[in-house]
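To close the section, here is one more complete example, presented without commentary so you can practise reading it yourself. The ligand is glutamic acid.
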Amino acid sequence: MPLRLPCTRWLALYLFSSSVLAASPDGVVAVSHPAAAAAGARMLAAGGNAIDAAAAVQFALNVVEPQSSGIGGGGFMLIHLAKTNETFIVDSRERAPARARADMFAPEGLPMEFPLASTSGLAVGVPGTVRGVDTALRRWGIKKLADTLAPAIELAEHGFRVNRFLAADIVNDGGRTQLHPETAAIFRPGGVPLAEGDWLVQPDLARTFRLLAAKGPDAFYRGQLARAIVEAQQRSRSELGAAGQGRMTLADLQHYQVAIREPLVGHYRGWTLAGMPPPSSGGLTVLQMLGLLERFPLGDATQGYGFGSPKTLHVMIEAMRLAFADRAVWIGDDDAVAVPRQGLLHPDYLATRAALIKTDRRMDTPQAGDPAPWDKTAGQPKPSRIKEESPHTTHFSIVDRWGNVVSYTSTIEFTWGSGITVPGYGFLLNNELTDFNFVPSADAAEGNPGANDVAPGKRPRSSMAPTLLFRNGKPVAAYGSPGGATIINSVLNVTLNLIDHGMTMQQAIDAPRLSVTHATGKASCEGGQTFMQPPISTATLDALRKLGHAGLGEAGMEGCRETIGSVQGIVIDPSNGAHRGAADARREGAVTRLRAETASTATRH
Ligand code: GLU
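Output:
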């Protein structure tokens, strides 16, 4: 990706491409789109803190990366406050409506087809982003909601240039920008898909943002806009008929509440990680994998365990398979079901699981373990249904001049969500409820808790894993990724690159990734792209095949070609407090830093 130094329209900011690290004590924003990075930096420059910047980034992303996140969805905002040294999460995950039922995606016992269910109103969860961002702003921000909406309003009203990622997602939409006329009118005007370089203006979305700026979040959760959401999610695909209609009511919207959660905290080789607890599987599964891998000398090339070596990749794959077997059974929204967090992370339990990893061959397909002896739950589980995952969602990381940090992963679930744009309001509704099990798995006789079965008011299990890394009690890095279940593996890859392989954040992001998201699953891997150094070699892939691993492209070829995730990270240098950002060229990642003259006297945090 070439170095670009555009002057933003708003402020004297330096905008760097992903190939350049920006160092600054005045705040850094790392986002998957330069216009959204600029929106966040504009808040920091105007005296705002990381929470204000996060709000502005989220709203701007709704405009410039509408296929991935927005006010029709939800997310997890991991916040660290420098002054009090507190870390917590604003959980704005979508919730199932009160009328949701465990079998609603399998009315006759047969699961609906994912492409149909996920583009019907039935898949739409009660959106949380507006309430989540507003809650964070009111409690920990400096700016008003209206201030943070201003850059997004300008972008929606004046327009922006469609980048190649948005253009490609419109063309490869699986039909989602064509199913509903309001969505097609925005992204396929006159029936022609927007192309790279086209100018996109979104007047309906701008009006919606103006409404929120004037009236606050209640304008979203009550009144005309709420009625429009309820009506829009009554749409169904003709193949599903009434069974595909959404079950959300005005009362569901009115009663939507965010949760403020303690992060899940774990340790790896002397570092501390704060991650996302249930309803996400992100933190638990990352920490489980790190616990399994800690007994292997991953960074030590003299023992054959350097970066990208067959031995290192082999044990990573096995750790992923073991952790994903547990995830399938044990993890769901633990406001609704008991998740054996303690057992899943207990060192003695992890020792029994790690003993299954053989260094000379791929293990047979592992079942979920039984963490009950190390927790309070008992029984023999059976795996939940696995569903198709999309490569979308978005992650951004921010640090401000006071050292407050935000690591925020946000989503409307699949690329383009449900494909339903709320008529007259210009934003897409999520299909998050398809993150639930399609067929209920609860089985008392077999000890399966049905951790991720649909239930009224419950949050679907997520994979999102916004992460903070601490050294000596101080945050030193924040990162996360989109990518469905691969999110967990992208975060694992980056964590190992930082800690075991001694990479900078930019190197850790650029390095090729490896991912397996199911105990039986094939390994996907990246390679061949010029921005990743070094690619996983053909010899390494062949060595992994000899150990019994499948996937990895064709034998004897540079088979790893797909991209996995899109990580945006920041680093706080503990030696001098300097802030650095690193963005991912797998999307139009951008790092924006501030100049010292923008310093303000605000002292709230
Ligand atoms: N819905 C997914 C989750 O919460 C994210 C979707 C994606 O990244 O593709 O884990």
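Once you have examined the tokens, check your reading against these statements. The CA atoms of residues 106 and 112 lie 6 Å apart. The pocket of glutamic acid is lined by residues 389-393, 411, 413, 432, 435, 462-464, 482-484, 487 (CB under 6 Å).
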